[in-house]
Specification:
370 residues, two-stranded parallel ribbon, binds tryptophan
Length: 370
Amino acid sequence: MSEATKSGADTVADSMSDGSLRASQRRSDAIEADIPKNPQRYRLLTGDRPTGRLHIGHYFGSIANRVRLQNAGVSAMLVIADYQVIYDRDDVGAIRENVFSGIADYLASGIDPVRTTIFTHSAVPALNQLLLPFLSLVTESELRRNPTVKDEMEHAGGRAMSGLMLTFPVHQAADILFCKANLVPVGKDQLPHIEITRLIARRFDERYGRAAPQSPVFPQADALLSASSAILGLDGGKMSKSRRNTIEIGMSADETAALIKKAKTDSDRRITFDPESRPEVSNLVLLTSLATGQTPQDVAERIGDGGGGGLKRACTEALNDYFAPIRARRAELVADPGYLRDVLHAGNQRANEVAGATLGEVRAAMGMDY
Ligand code: TRP
């Protein structure tokens, strides 16, 4: 048996059992409780693929949480995953525009570029070089079984899988491990990424004699599982830029109003929060709740018999009020492209320093420090 497949219980597919999910949830809860006391124990990494504009699903689902953790004192790295854009498409799209629009969204939302290092894959060669030793630590069949790869395939519309798609979980492990992140905020569906990252970290240190009681090169990363319920698109489907059912962070108040006006609802005038049987209505209630800080039940009660029209008015007002200051800051940032470039260049420089140091340790562990 090869070393990479040594322990069956170690494989990504096995690790996604119910027990493992519960264990991940327990670790996540314990970390959430520890963060206010010991923020300096954590190094966080998250990221987004710059395939389009960021929307309010990104904002409420992850960006707001990143800002919260950053402000709690957790040191954070934010990868704009530009090399991930091409794992399932033939061209990079409006890559430059998407990257800088994303940076403006982050900063306007409260990401502080001093406390959070914002960088792009393509500018950090040492990060990408980690992919080579890491690829030797996983088998082809483990990659094929990865639930996220399978899921991405299903959304690929039948096109053949690229080698980059097959190996992107390993690249993502490099994102996490280059900066020795021990904390990755994700939804449950992203847990396989964390599992493969833990596996690669463990195998690297075992193979190169750095496992405990030696000093391991890599930490074991934990998922910080997000509690927030999934936000749907305005048509009731998954909110996604490719489905054109999103409200972008950077849209105007009028554009927001027009989109919500066309959102799907139902004919029952009594507004309730019941995501199972009234997904579209409940989604507008949820958005209103997130933007006002009221519970979904209170929002529904307040609108009462106001029907879809009343709900849409409340939702539009809540979102536009909430995003008004963010959008105003965003407009100022977009008007200063030189500043956005400086932020990215400084982030890339910092990421290169971190990646260079880690690659140095990897070379030393492998006996390649000539
Ligand atoms: N795949 C993530 C997304 O589609 C972005 C990402 C890249 C990421 N590298 C990461 C997320 C590492 C968490 C950890 O949004």
